[in-house]
Design goal:
It is built from eleven helices and no strands. With about 190 residues, the chain is mostly helical. It is elongated.
Length: about 190
C-alpha cells in the first residue's frame, strides 16, 4: 500500500469517526431535551444514532465526556446571548433590562432542555458540575458585568441581580403571566430602584 493510499484511508476513517461522534452527540442532546439527562439511556442513544452501545462508550466513556459534546451541538443551534450592545446602553435601568430581556429570550428558547437539566442536576452529579461551569457561569459573568456597569452596586443590588439571572426566577415570572420584556423591566426596576 502506498503512503498516499494510507493517508487517504486514515483521513476517511477520521472523518467517519467524527461523523459518528457528532451523530451520537446530536442523538444524546435530542434525548436530553426530550426526556432529560437522568432518563436518557446509552441504549436509546445508540438506537437513535444507529450505532452499538459499545460504539457510544468508545466515543463517550462517561457523562463528563458526553455532556460537553452535547452542549456544543445544542449551542450550535441555540447560541448563547451576547450582551455587549445592551451593556453599552447609557441608562443603568436599560442596561439591566436589555441584558435580562436577551437572557430571558434565550431561557425561553432553551426551556425544554434546561428545565429538565436543572431538575435532573440533583440526581446526576456530572450534570450538576457541568451546569455550574456552563450556564450558571454565563449568568454569573453577566451579574459581574452588570455590577460593574452600575458603578458601586450595593449588596442588595448584587443579590437582586443574582436572583434576576436565575433560570427559576425567569420561569416563575413567566408563569405569573409576564412576557420576557415585562419580566426584564420588572427585575430592572427592582435592581436599579
Amino acid at each position: 500500500m502506498s503512503t498516499q493510499s494510507r493517508k487517504y484511508e486514515l483521513k476517511a476513517r477520521a472523518e467517519s469517526q467524527k461523523e459518528t461522534r457528532d451523530r451520537i452527540a446530536r442523538s444524546a442532546a435530542e434525548l436530553h431535551e426530550e426526556v432529560g439527562v437522568a432518563r436518557t439511556t446509552v441504549a436509546e442513544i445508540a438506537r437513535r444514532a444507529g450505532v452499538s452501545r459499545l460504539t457510544v462508550y468508545n466515543h463517550f466513556p462517561d457523562l463528563d465526556v458526553l455532556l460537553p459534546a452535547c452542549a456544543a451541538h445544542y449551542e450550535g443551534i441555540h447560541p448563547r446571548p451576547v450582551f455587549d450592545e445592551t451593556l453599552a446602553s447609557p441608562e443603568p435601568a436599560d442596561r439591566v433590562a436589555g441584558s435580562l430581556e436577551l437572557l430571558y429570550a434565550w431561557y425561553r428558547e432553551t426551556e425544554p432542555m434546561f428545565g429538565k437539566a436543572f431538575s435532573d442536576r440533583a440526581t446526576v452529579p456530572e450534570l450538576d458540575r457541568f451546569l455550574a461551569g456552563g450556564v450558571e457561569q454565563m449568568a454569573e459573568d453577566l451579574v459581574v458585568r452588570l455590577e460593574e456597569s452600575l458603578g458601586k452596586a450595593t449588596s442588595d443590588q448584587r443579590t437582586m441581580l443574582r436572583l434576576a439571572v436565575d433560570f427559576w426566577t425567569w420561569r416563575r415570572l413567566t408563569r405569573e403571566g409576564l412576557d420576557d420584556r415585562g419580566a426584564s423591566r420588572l427585575m430592572a426596576r427592582m435592581v436599579v430602584g
